[in-house]
Amino acid sequence: MLLIWNRPGFTEGLSEQDRTALFGEVDEIMKELTETGELIGGQALANPSQTLTVRLVDGSPEVLDGPFMESKEQFAGYLAVDCDSPQRAAEIAARWPDVRYGGAMEVRPIMDEAGTEM
Predict the structure, then answer these.
(1) Is residue 50 a contact partner of residue 8, using CB atoms and an 8 Å limit?
(2) What is the model's pTM?
(3) Which end of the chain has fewer CB atoms surrounding its CB within 10 Å, N or C?
(4) What Gene3D superfamilies does this protein map onto (predicted)?
(5) End-to-end distance of the chain based on CA atoms, in angstroms?
(6) Three-class SS state of 105
(7) If you ran DSSP here, which 8-state letter would residue 84 be given?
(8) Torsions phi, psi for 58 (to 5 deg)
(9) Concatenated DSSP letters of 36-66
(10) 21 contact partners, CB below 8 Å, separation of at least 6
């Protein structure tokens, strides 16, 4: 799983040309991963301002507005890929354009049904 972390709204500060180039790069990577059969799926997430978080407060679950943590970067989406190695997944993540704009890509194996990866 490639977890996409970036600053919410960072694309609003880009020029139209830079925004178009960034989304073009994403399209190219997605096309490549589809052609190689490595792409399983993925999705962008809505703005963190629309987040609800459930936490235990005084022994009872409580629904709170907003993301679960305060930070500059927020979880923005994910890609699920089927790669030959963790190094290949990291190679894909390193090409993701958000990284150049202060974001990060977290590469994390998905557990199989047995959960032996714990």
Answers:
(1) no
(2) 0.81
(3) C
(4) Dimeric alpha+beta barrel
(5) 15
(6) strand
(7) S
(8) 50, 40
(9) HT-EEEEEE---GGG-EEEEEETTEEEEEES
(10) 97
